[in-house]
Amino acid sequence: xxxxxxxxxxxxxxxxxxxxxxxxxxxxxxxxxxxxxxxxxxxxxxxxxxxxxxxxxxxxxxxxxxxxxxxxxxxxxxxxxxxxxxxxxxxxxxxxxxxxxxxxxxxxxxxxxxxxxxxxxxxxxxxxxxxxxxxxxxxxxxxxxxxxxxxxxxxxxxxxxxxxxxxxxxxxxxxxxxxxxxxxxxxxxxxxxxxxxxxxxxxxxxxxxxxxxxxxxxxxxxxxxxxxxxxxxxxxxxxxxxxxxxxxxxxxxxxxxxxxxxxxxxxxxxxxxxxxxxxxxxxxxxxxxxxxxxxxxxxxxxxxxxxxxxxxxxxxxxxxxxxxxxxxxxxxxxxxxxxxxxxxxxxxxxxxxxxxxxxxxxxxxxxxxxxxxxxxx
Length: 377
Fold this sequence. Notes:
Elements: E1 4-11, E2 21-28, E3 33-37, H1 44-52, E4 59-64, E5 67-71, E6 76-77, E7 85-88, H2 100-104, H3 106-110, H4 115-128, H5 144-157, E8 162-166, H6 174-191, E9 194-199, H7 202-208, E10 211-216, E11 219-224, H8 226-231, H9 236-241, E12 248-251, H10 258-272, E13 278-283, E14 289-291, E15 302-313, E16 318-324, E17 327-333, E18 344-349, E19 355-358, H11 366-376
Parallel strand pairs: 3-9, 3-10, 7-8, 8-9
Antiparallel strand pairs: 1-2, 1-4, 4-5, 5-6, 10-11, 12-13, 13-19, 14-18, 15-16, 15-18, 16-17
Helix pairs in contact: 4-5, 5-6
């Protein structure tokens, strides 16, 4: 399977509107499951459509393997049907008058694949996706999840070098979405297909992707593995967009943040010295621990007095709402809490779980920030 490389890709629709995609440099490696993640209007679907050839970039170039399929400077454009890609839309786009079997082998018929090979490939992919028993039915006779499998089978039957998926699970209910996530994971492992998947759902991205490209306002914010995106967000946008409940943000530059901001600033200064440009601290709810006895706080951890103002069960975990000097902080635990609403307690966080950001929201490396501050002096 080929790599997909985007270099300086730009998309502007004109009319004075901001660019949908701005100077995008991105590489999707062979066999990778890449998720383009971001809110509505961030440019992720436009990027997918440019890879597919359904949209023309207004700048930059796109390569699939060694072949340039789009280059604005060189005037190169390869039409979608010659890019050897499979595309599954948010709408399944099945032919209502064709049986499931004929929907699946539709692409093979267009390519004039010999009948024996066509039947074998159709049967194989239908067996793997568990839809063989529906081969004589029509799309209207299937559930949403079954129709999604048919749409995937139709693309996989033609053995595309790359599979492009544009929010294909958004029309399914919660249970079917969970089943189809597991199905997509299995498809990727079994077929070894390079997949580019567009979604605004962070949990889809976290559970499916080998690499996630987080986008905002047409720009790439961070590229990394799910663990890297979650544990070491490159900026505050990524930190606040990924995670549920959202990350706790302590604004160090705002007086109204009160005691918590002062305590956090003092702790960071004692640990790292004066950090140039430090603006805020982000703490994932999972990293916030709660205890009623200060003796239980590990040495070296950041700690603060807190009062429990809410305990919210979510089924497999509990969200604990804390009041710290008038500032709300959320903690998440998988263990049933032994505390009660109104209890006075302590929260504590290991130093490695403090995400530091500068005034512009960019992640700070304490060592680099310290060096910069010393150089300025």
